[in-house]
Amino acid sequence: xxxxxxxxxxxxxxxxxxxxxxxxxxxxxxxxxxxxxxxxxxxxxxxxxxxxxxxxxxxxxxxxxxxxxxxxxxxxxxxxxxxxxxxxxxxxxxxxxxxxxxxxxxxxxxxxxxxxxxxxxxxxxxxxxxxxxxxxxxxxxxxxxxxxxxxxxxxxxxxxxxxxxxxxxxxxxxxxxxxxxxxxxxxxxxxxxxxxxxxxxxxxxxxxxxxxxxxxxxxxxxxxxxxxxxxxxxxxxxxxxxxxxxxxxxxxxxxxxxxxxxxxxxxxxxxxxxxxxxxxxxxxxxxxxxxxxxxxxxxxxxxxxxxxxxxxxxxxxxxxxxxxxxxxxxxxxxxxxxxxxxxxxxxxxxxxxxxxxxxxxxxxxxxxxxxxxxxxxxxxxxxxxxxxxxx
Length: 391
Hints:
This protein has helices at residues 14-17, 30-39, 77-81, 87-95, 119-139, 152-161, 186-192, 198-210, 220-237, 244-258, 302-313, 330-335, 358-376, and strands at 2-6, 45-52, 58-67, 98-101, 112-113, 144-150, 168-178, 214-218, 262-269, 272-282, 285-293, 322-327, 339-349. By secondary structure, the protein is an alpha+beta fold. It has 2 domains: 2-173 and 342-389, Gcn5-related N-acetyltransferase (GNAT) (Aminopeptidase, 3-Layer(aba) Sandwich), CATH 3.40.630.30; 180-320, Aminopeptidase (3-Layer(aba) Sandwich), CATH 3.40.630.30.
C-alpha cells in the first residue's frame, strides 16, 4: 500500500475521501473534518492518512490527531489504563502528549474503506494506516496512541494491526440507534413496542399535538440565530457555561461546512420557537446531533416527539435505515425503541508497549459489559445479551 498524508483539510482531496463509504459516518466526512479543524485546541496537530493500492486507487483512510493534553474529559487515556498498567507507565501516559487515531469528538471513531475493497485489501490498508498513525504519534512524542469509540470490527482490525505493540482493547461505551427503517408510520411503531409501553408513547404524541405546537423541517443555516438561545438554555440547564454567542458560533460553523447535509426539526408555538432537533444525513442514516428548548414553555415530551415520534410519523423509515442517537440517557432512549451498539477503544504504547495485565483487561471488560446489561438490558426491545460484547 502507498500511504499519503495531509496536514490540513484544504490539502485533502475531499471528493476522493468521501468516496470511502464503507464504515463511514457523518463524523468521518470531509465536511465534519473541516469543523474539527477549526475547533482544534492551540498546539494540536492533525493528519489525514490515505492508503492507495498498487494502481494508485484510494483504498482507505484514517484521521490522526495529537494533543498536549486531552481535548475532552472523555478522551483521557490515563483514566482508561488506571489499574491495568504499573504506576510508572500510568504516570507517563498522564503527563505526556497523546495521539488519537480514527477521529476525535462526537464520541465515534471510524476507519473508512472503499466499498469494493475485499478482506485482504482492507487488512493491508489498516496495517498501512496504523503504521503511519504510530509514526505520527512518535513525532508528537506521545506516550499512547488511542483509537476511541470504535465499533467492534474496527477495534479488532486495529488491534491486530498493532499486535506487535501489545494493543489493549477495552469495552468503552454504548451508542444507541433507532431502527426507524422497521416502520412505515406510527401504527407500525406502536405495534412493534411491547404492549405495556404503547400507552406512554401514544400519550406523549397526543399531548404534543394537543399543545398546538407545529413542526417544520429546515436547514441549519436558515435558523442558527433562532436555535442558539434554545441550545444555550439546554447546555446551561446541564451545568455548562455555554452562552448564546458561543452556541451561534458553533452552529454557524457547522452550517458553513455541513449545511447541505443538515435537516433540522423546529417546533413552534405560533411564531415562537419552542424546541429543535438538529440531524445530519449521511448515506442511509440520520445522525441526531443536538437539541435545545425554551424552558419557559411546558414540556410536552418535545425531545421525544422531535427525535422519535415525528420522524416515524412522517415515514422517515421509508428512505432511512436508522437514526443514530449517540451516547447516554440510555433508559429513556431504549424504552422507546432505540437499540444499543457497543463501542471499544484500542490503546497502543508509542515508545514501548503498555504492558497491561491481560487478566485485568479481561476482568474490566467483563464487569463493565455486565454492569451495562444489569442496568439496561430489560429496557431493550427484543432484549440484548451483553456477554456477546466481551472480547
